[in-house]
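User: For my dataset I need records formatted as: sequence, then structure tokens, nothing else. Please produce one.
Assistant:
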Amino acid sequence: MHIPNELAEIAPGVYAWLPDFPGTWGMANCTLIAADSGALLVDTPYTAALTEALTAAAHRVLPSSASISTVVNSHANGDHSYGNGLFPHAEIISTDANLAHLCTEPEPAQLQTLLDQCRTDEPFDRYMLAHFGRYDYRRLRLAPPTRTFSGQLDLQVGSTSVELIEVGPAHTAGDLIVHLPDRGVVVAGDVLFIGDVPVHWAGPLSGVVAACQQILDLDPHVVVPGHGPIVGTGEVRRYMHYITELRERIHILHTQGMDVESAASVLLHKFRRPDLGLSERLAVLTATEYRHLTPSTDPLNLVRILGAAVRLAPDCVPATVPSRDTLMAELESLI
């Protein structure tokens, strides 16, 4: 596992912050578009300390006269937006639907309280501590978008053209991708995961596939996923095939009359891929698709859905977990 101290230049004036931390939650990629007049940052990290590490790395590649004046959130999940508040003078841009989606996830203080109350004798609590206990959600202030749009919004960062393209609902209700046509780059956000089983909260899964097709239609040379290493279009196609296959299997199980937990159990036992981490997310994907196959008016509750996934995949729960102080110290040592 690795937290980068430097940004990787993936195209002229375009840099990626790529945490190498597979098999866990929260370590999302961020992308910086630099110019003499200022910079645009796509997504912000999960904690204040991670955001400060990214900002320090950004200052090493930015001209002395430039600062991050614009933040774009690809969607509303905290691992892509909790760091917004550390850019108090920046314009924060996302989709209209993304702004409406903010209420479906615990705020940082609520998540901190949840973790503080976790008990190591409870399986779900151990899972939460193992994956989220390394994060310190204090010093965070929710900073929602200050500018929103629907459809497409075109920007200019120095000589770099930036196209913000709405592709949700897919991973969440308000996803967008960022296209840099002159640089051959697409920043995909969480419509694309590489290396782990994806988690998609809104769906339907056909929306995820359609969003990936929009990426392919732009014919980029480089694609930055929400999580995992940068890839080319071949990996995007393989990911689309995987999601399509999962969708078809879920639909077959639904047609057979299985309830959501039974269908998720079948996927977890028969269709795991050993090359992908976080297989418990198969249960989340099943629940997401079932909300569309058997429409529900219940509000989306991310913690409850994750709890059901953990219950259905007991082998994903560690027998023991280090103390929160140990977990946070481990992460701090990497920053």
